[in-house]
Write a structure and sequence with these properties.
alpha/beta, 251 residues, 11 helices, TIM Barrel, 28% strand, eight-stranded parallel barrel
Length: 251
């Protein structure tokens, strides 16, 4: 069995790590490099850095931060936010990112997934999918959760996989920041339909939520932000707890 991964997420706005609830009510929580270094020391498997306002503001993702992270942190990290073309991907990977994450650009131009995976390989491509339930359907959102697309979660995830994505990062906007648990049923359905890894995001509040995610949701990795940023859950202790629950993680 492949070990489950624990991935702290650092949403970055104007150079600072921030966190909100349901994608709104944003507040600063610290320096992204310092926080990332701390998580690496605690035993995090990977990090995800998302420039959450890049798409809305029409600017490119933060190359200078990527270079700092690559220089100072010794675990793999993924970068996303505002990536719209293959040249940006090249620049980010050259700057030291291990993987890139695309979201809004993939929705508006699905062929971008093919281009990136074709040039660099699927292992470098994470497609982030933000979705919420509307009229009984999981509707995919874009632009940092601000715009409703015409995509439905499960059909879009299947297309993303077919086009060459190596992983999917699924965030339930309905659960994001609530600390009431992940979208277990949706995740279980999603994982059963796909043959690529799924990273679950949105709703982590206590260690039991992670255990239930891996046992019931079938996700390959769990991503969380506020519970780590606030010190409510320590990565090392979470891994100990998961081991006690019979769940294999990378130690």
């Amino acid at each position: 069995m492949v070990a489950k991964r624990i991935i702290p997420c650092l949403d970055v706005h104007e150079g600072k790590t921030v966190k909100g609830v349901n994608f709104i009510n944003i507040k600063e929580v610290g320096d992204p490099v310092e926080l990332g270094r701390g998580y690496a020391i605690q035993g995090a498997d990977e990090l995800v850095y998302l420039d959450i306002s890049a798409t809305l503001q029409g600017r490119r993702t933060f190359l200078s931060l990527v270079k700092r992270v690559a220089k100072e942190i010794n675990i793999p990290f993924t970068v996303g936010g505002g990536i719209t073309d293959i040249n940006q991907v090249s620049a980010l990977l050259d700057a030291g990112a291990d993987k890139i994450s695309i979201n809004s650009a993939a929705i508006s131009n699905p062929a971008l997934i093919d281009s990136i995976s074709g040039k660099y390989g699927s292992q470098f491509v994470v497609v982030a999918i933000d979705a919420r339930v509307e009229e009984g359907l999981w509707r995919v959102m874009s632009s940092g959760g601000q715009k409703r697309s015409n995509r439905e979660l499960f059909e879009w995830a299947d297309e993303v996989m077919t086009r060459g994505a190596g992983e999917i990062l699924f965030t339930s906007m309905d659960h994001d920041g609530t600390k009431n648990g992940f979208a277990y049923e949706a995740l279980s359905n999603l994982c059963s339909k796909l043959s690529i890894p799924v990273i679950a995001s949105g709703g982590a509040g206590k260690m039991e939520h992670f255990a239930r995610l891996f046992k019931e949701g079938g996700a390959d990795a769990a991503l969380a932000a506020s519970v780590f940023h606030n010190g409510e859950i320590k990565v090392a202790r979470l891994k100990e707890y998961l081991a006690e629950m019979g769940i294999d993680t990378r130690i």
